[in-house]
Amino acid sequence: MECGMRGQLEERESKIMSPNQSTAEVSHLAVDIGGSLIKVVYSSSNNNNEADDKGKKSSNDCVGIPNGSSDYPVLCGRLHFAKFETSKINDCLEFISSKQLHQCADWHHEASSHDKNIIKATGGGAYKFADLFKEKLGVSLDKVDEMDCLVAGSNFLLKTVHPEAFTYIDGREEYVQIDHNDLYPYLLVNIGSGVSMIKVDGDGKFERVSGTSVGGGTFWGLGKLLTKCKSFDELLELSQKGNNRVIDMLVGDIYGGVDCPKIGLSSTAIASSFGKAISENKELEDYRPEDISRSLLRLISNNIGQISYLNALRFGLNRIFFGGFFIRGHAYTMDTISVAVHFWSKGEAKAMFLRHEGFLGALGAFTSFESHGLNDITTH
Ligand SMILES: Nc1ncnc2c1ncn2[C@@H]1O[C@H](COP(=O)(O)OP(=O)(O)OP(=O)(O)O)[C@@H](O)[C@H]1O
Ligand SMILES: CC(C)(CO)[C@@H](O)C(=O)NCCC(=O)O
Description:
This protein is an alpha/beta fold. The longest helix is centred in the C-terminal third of the chain and has 26 residues.
């Protein structure tokens, strides 16, 4: 995916560097250590691509970008993305250590010496695991505020990467053209373990206006207990094969199969999530894990969509961008959130999703380096 000038964002979750790539090519590293997942973003120059990239400019050719300030080879390099479960933080440390990412070399003479060997870190784990990073890798974490990073990451992506934002309506993704002069204000809803809702008014101008503890951690935690699923993706897959009407109490179940136009609810609308379970003489084992997962996903996504819209309404915002790894590019999740926003706003507000959903915070921490050159990409 091209980002702005010649910079390229590349989304891969692991094994991203060729085995013979030297560590000297890695320039910056940032981590976002959340309640569920650790996200890692690092940049590398594309020197290793020169052989098979004939005709394209090498990193040195990048010098001369008309920004009036320093130019950095990262503009021609790549951003690499990786993620790990927070409970397996040792795997993450091993990854960083094996690739020597924490020994980011001063491979460009103009790179600030201040940035050398520093890991920018955000998320709660930047505090919780600071000693572990020191002990295992010998590095100090340079902590960056979580909300600052989410907003910086979101603004960076929206202004730099095309296509980044999309709507999901009737099973179709539609990319949204972002007008840089008409981006603000917007509501950023980051659905991680918990959910943060942030009103964004500009670069570094924002307010966390709300949040809810009913988020991705709730879906994964409750889902694990109720279905015995071993992984998040397995739980999501189950939901695809499920039928929520088996467990959810619908308006029709209460009204004898008819719509309820006076209160604007059709007979198929959910009146009470998981409500059917109270009136049936069934145990947990009598329900299919697929149906449980479907009802749970619907409950959480609906609830977040509704709270998001109410907050957008509070501040007169029409655009709501959703990020966080709960979304996982999953059709039913995005569809439920979109329908909730559409329903509650009577079609006035739009739910939009970000392709780099879970990496906003890590990207924001990355952009806080003084010498990465990304601000230059942004302005171009
Ligand atoms: N492989 C996975 N393992 C665990 N959870 C996953 C996975 N993929 C997606 N998820 C979902 O993503 C959520 C975590 O999202 P994200 O990484 O954005 O938040 P976080 O930074 O861990 O949380 P917080 O910001 O609240 O500390 C999980 O709670 C789960 O719902
Ligand atoms: C506590 C954080 C910010 C940690 O990332 C997140 O999990 C969250 O926004 N939780 C929701 C907390 C609340 O506002 O009720």
